[in-house]
Amino acid sequence: MKFGHIGDLHIGKRVHDFSMLEDQRYILDQMIKIFEEQKVDGVLIAGDVYDKTVPSAEAVQLFDEFITGLAKAEIPVYMISGNHDSAERLSFGAKLFENSDIYISQVYDGEMKRIVLKDQYGPISVYLLPFLKPAAVRHALQRDDINTYEEGVMAALQECEIDTTQRNVLVAHQFVTGADRSDSEETWVGGLDNVSAEVFKDFDYVALGHIHRPQKMGRETLRYSGTPLKYSFSEADHKKSVTIVELLEKGNVRVSTVPLIPRRDMRKLRGTYMDVTAKDHYTAENKMDYLQITLTDEEDVPGALQKLRTVYPNLMRLEYDNKRTRENREVQAVEAQEQKSELELFEEFYELLNNEPMKEEQTEFVEKLIQDLKEVRV
After folding, report:
1. Rounded to an integer, what is the distance from CA 312 to the centroid of its chain?
2. What is the CATH code for 2-259?
3. pLDDT, tens digit (0-9, with 9 covering 90-100), for 168-186
């Protein structure tokens, strides 16, 4: 059985006040064509369908077009909510949609939705695990021993009683420890949202969402599909793609990717004003890309943003890198360091030494120790 794995669509997103809706429409249409060409048996959508919990009418309409396109192509959908989605809104009409082979995770109530499929190798169970916070699992399972994201996900999966002799697929939206993040992702201080890859060991394939760079997590079959578009300039070097997963007999999973070609790329340019405006520096096509331009002129160019946009209409961000700005950054860095608390400085030092953030219990211990020392000093 063959699946397409996508996630983090963030429909309705604005980047530096530029609407991405038309770019999203273009890439969603491209994905439908890829799924048809690949003859997939279903599409796994790993959360963050929308960019906001209350999406705009235009965003909802665009996603409706996408889902309708998949339904017309007779491609089933297995979808979960992410941390940017409202689980209640996304799952509206879920029972009705199942008549069209569109399966959506419900608000977590202690049970995960499970869909059983069959092919020539036997049954495949597809589990839908929406984005979970520890408090939601603690409430649903009536347990007071769940305090971390990892404990919450482990408890939710333990309730499933997974048959590991058969093939199992999980669609989830969590941050697996070690994943390479981007600026456009929502993060928790100190890595408190970390979940170990070992938590997902019972699944033949795990379709992950939440991280914007496509990547595997230790094994080929534990993967983030990444966003279909670049949503920050920290992603300028990303190669966006659709993940294709083929499950054969138990233990045999093939994973490949199909590149996505955006309507407009997102790039960084650097040089003097004369350099970046020279005609041999751009083409009719790439000057329409979304750009961050860093000017290296020692003196600011009056009206540079407006002037550059006559050449590059989709210039999103203009920066300077010269002696003045470097000195300002150094001063700001010192001021920022001086404003940090003792705990924040210790956390940075710990992570530098150990290449991992402090655990919650370690943070609590150090916080108490600092407080005790302050009291002794007084």
Report:
1. 28
2. 3.60.21.10
3. 999 999 999 888 777 766 6
